[in-house]
Amino acid sequence: MGILYDEKQKTITLHTKNTTYQMQIDRYNFLLHLYYGKRAEGCMDYLLTFYDRGFSGNPYDAGSDKTYSMDSLPQEFPSLGTGDYRTPACIIKNTDRTYSSDFRYVRHSIRDGKYSLKGLPAVYADAAEAQTLEVVLEDRVSKVRAVLLYGVLPEYDVITRSVRIVNAGEGHVSVKKLAPACLDMMGGDYDFITFYGRHAMERNFQRLPIGHGVSKIGSLRGTSSHQYNPAVIVAEHDTTEESGSCYAMSFVYSGGFQSEAGRDQYYQTRVLMGFSEEQFAYPLEAGEEFQSPEVILSYSSEGLSKLSQNLHRCIRTHLCRGKYKEAVRPILLNSWEASYFDFTGDTLLKLAEQAAELGIEMFVMDDGWFGKRDSELRGLGDWKVNEEKLGCTLGELITRINGMGLKFGIWIEPEMVNEDSDLYREHPDWAFVIPGRRPNRSRHQLVLDFSRKEIVDHIYEQICSVLDQGNVEYIKWDMNRSLADIYSATADSQGRVLHDYVLGLYDFLERIVNRYPDILIEGCSGGGGRFDAGMLYYTPQIWCSDNTDAVDRLEIQYGTSFIYPVSSVGSHVSASPNHQTGRLTSLRTRGVVASAGTFGYELDLNQLSEEEKDEIRCQITYYKRYAALIQKGLYYRLTNPQTADAGAWEFVSEDGKEALVMAVGTRQHANMTVDYIKVRGLEENKMYREEGSGRLYNSTALMEAGFPMPVELGEYRAYQWYFVRED
Ligand code: GLA
After folding, report:
1. What is the pLDDT of residues 340-364, one digit of tens each?
2. Rg of the chain over CA atoms, in angstroms?
3. What is the Å distance from ligand 1's center to 650 Cα?
4. What is the tens place of the pLDDT at every residue in 658-716?
5. Which of 100, 273, 296, 306 could staple 250 via S-S, CB 3.0–4.6 A?
6. Index of the ligand 1 atom closest to the CA of residue 476
7. Predicted confidence (pLDDT) at residue 1 exceeds the cutoff of 70
8. In DSSP terms, which residues pair with 410 in a beta bridge?
9. What is the atom index within ligand 1 of the atom nearest the CA of 602?
10. Strand-pair category, 173-178 with 295-300
11. How far is the CA of 568 from the centre of ligand 1 (A)?
12. What is the pLDDT of residue 320?
């Protein structure tokens, strides 16, 4: 059993295989947080301390006891107005226009299975795999309830958290701030690990000590964003890849967000994950409720690699869905960097022919096939096949491509409209524009108001009528700007529009997933601008970055790997010199880096020499041979490519029998020093044979001393070593 209630101690304990999370209903019915860490039994309320602290006030119930203060006690769901002056998880504007909430425990229930969230993505698990805890808190004056949901997946060392705010009072209230996950930590020195970036350089790893004051990351863009990813890690200062305590919080949400981490006056740490505060004010009439998305939490006492592996397994097997979630994905060729908007049906077929000849399995027609879309300037919103450009119907094109033995995939960007489009001319009020103001343009496009169902319905119909024209087996779902000018003509409150937009997007995706269960969807937002756990519920893979440069990708994929499984990372071999950086790298290096993801190609194959074509054939054979190990193996980061002379990483089968190590040199000097790569995750003191050299290695020595990376002339040299245990 994952969840235990101790009636005497009034503790609720959530156990997973290796972790324990404990809370207590205290003497005044506040819900206090006691412990989250390595698995432990018993009551941890001895951790609470009570001292008379100046300017830390006391709840009225405490009478003359000056030692009891919400300003210093660790809590599950802190709100504004209880005397806790730290950053709260919840602010509600009450009917009487005050902002105080005093949530106290009312009741709780425990049930088998994992809760689901209507209209929202969420981790799923059956009654044998998970349990749900529901704790009802209430503010006795406003009658607003906070229903805390905890999903416990013992085998995955994962706990999920969500909250439902219920207005059981009589008047109108507004939810101004909401963070479904709060972690209060009484002792310890922690770092805040976040993933910052920009378009084409996403998810850079940053690790900074949590100091006094609040560090905040987030997105005001209506999407999870390239700039900050909605996932954070809190790690003790001395935590490494291999040892030490660390916690992850991954928001299962694709809209704006914020995460805050700070140390309070008593050196206690609070970390929150939830909605972005600036753009959120969700109205609730009497009787209405608001369900938040969930946050995935995980804890590891064995360092960051284990923490990432926990998240990878949970996301891959209990968040991603559909027939492809565990399957090796088809190797694809995408037309974008091969020809951008400049193609015809004939040039596509020529490209597809080459792809088929090399062993590629799927052909993806990217942007430019619909409306008058020959450049970024026009066409978005007009989801009608440009048969003139293709020289045939979509059905005919797909039949021909299928005839070559290739699957067919197509690019769409349903949330967008160009002003130069029939859709915009017909419905100018469907785009986000504030009356009286001129809208912000980005990539010459505006965003459709997906908070309105009629707009979602209209685009959905158009997209379905395209998909129904032939055997489409893959969709690349793009989204190429940040939201702005948020105003919805039909909304009763503008504070709900951004969230309703995300719900509209999820509704659209859910309908597509249900209607076309066999289609593989790859998410995309200018590459990785919406790379989050929410999208992965609908799209088991996401185009990781518009930056296909193999060397930059080392850092982008490194950052991404802390949270997201390799099976979700869209990664392609593109041309050299690279189109984003101008950098030259070998085909081998590009192949090795792209193979640490869902593998594919994105270049004009007709420009390649016979020698390069042969190399691609070999890459495909090699990738297919190890694809299952790559997608499902335990992932280890062996170096940090931001600082090391090489980027190195490893996939190990869960039984420890085989390991694939990959490395790419990042810095080259004369008279190079030697780097040693320490392999990880092997079974101790066994012999492993490295396939390329045929050499036998002792696994303990491989893990303790490593093996030398070759010193060779040339930049960005790439290597792969496959080790298999001799049984
Ligand atoms: C975005 C995507 C690219 C490509 C273009 C097409 O930038 O990230 O991969 O699909 O749009 O316009």
Report:
1. 999 999 999 999 999 999 999 999 9
2. 26
3. 29
4. 999 999 999 999 999 999 999 999 999 999 999 999 999 999 999 999 999 999 999 99
5. 296
6. 10
7. no
8. 365, 475
9. 9
10. unpaired
11. 18
12. 98
**How far, in Å, CA of 90 to CA of 81, rounded?**
10
Residue with tokens 């009020």, as numbered in its chain: 429
- Cis upstream peptide for 577 (omega within 30°): yes
End-to-end C-alpha distance for the chain, whole angstroms: 37
DSSP 683: P
Alpha carbon distance 653, 634 (integer Å): 6
**Helix axis angle, 394-403 relative to 345-358, nearest 10°?**
20
What would the mean pLDDT of 137-144 be, rounded to a whole number? 98
User: Closest residue (by CA) to atom 8 of ligand 1?
Assistant: 526
What is the predicted pLDDT for the residue at 438? Answer: 97
Residue nearest to atom 1 of ligand 1 (CA): 526
Which residues form the pocket of ligand 1, taking CB atoms under 6 Å from any ligand atom? 336, 366-367, 411, 478, 480, 524, 526-527, 543, 546
Residue in 198, 336, 418, 522 to alter for ligand 1 test, most ligand atoms within 8 A of Cβ? 336
Quick one: which atom of ligand 1 is closest to the CA of 366? Answer: 10
Per-residue pLDDT tens digits for 460-498: 999 999 999 999 999 999 999 999 999 999 998 999 999
Q: What is the mean pLDDT of residues 301-315?
A: 98
pLDDT band at 279 (very low <50, low <70, confident <90, very high): confident
Question: pTM of this prediction?
Answer: 0.98
Point out which residues pair with 262 in neighbouring strands: 270
Active site residues: 532, 612
Q: Residues 35, 37, 42, 46: is their CA dihedral positive or negative? A: negative
d(CA 1, CA 648): 39
Give 579: exposed, middle or buried? Use CB within 10 Å, 0-12, 13-18, 19+: middle
Residue 379 backbone class (left: φ over 0; alpha: ψ -120 to 50; beta: rest): left
Name the band, by pLDDT with cuts 50, 70 and 90, for residue 222. very high
d(CA 525, ligand 1 centre) in Å: 8
pLDDT confidence bin for 254, thresholds 50/70/90 = very high
Whole-angstrom Cα distance, residue 569 to residue 409?
Answer: 17
Q: pLDDT for 360-387, tens place per residue?
A: 999 999 999 999 999 999 999 999 999 9
Euclidean distance between CA atoms 525 and 534, whole angstroms = 14
What is the separation of C-alpha 619 from the centre of its chain, rounded to a whole number of angstroms? 28
What is the Cα–Cα distance from 124 to 357, expressed in whole angstroms?
Answer: 40
* Burial class of 267 by CB neighbour count within 10 A (0 to 12, 13 to 18, 19+): exposed
Phi-psi region at 325: left, alpha or beta (left = phi > 0; alpha = psi -120 to 50): alpha
Measured distance CA(32)–CA(628) in Å, rounded: 44
Closest ligand 1 atom to Cα of 524: 8
Average pLDDT score over the chain: 98
Name the residue at shortest CA distance from atom 4 of ligand 1.
336
If you measure from the C-alpha of residue 377 to the centroid of ligand 1, how many angstroms do you get, rounded to a whole number? 14
Q: How much is the average pLDDT of 16-35?
A: 98
CA of 523 relative to ligand 1 center, distance in Å? 11
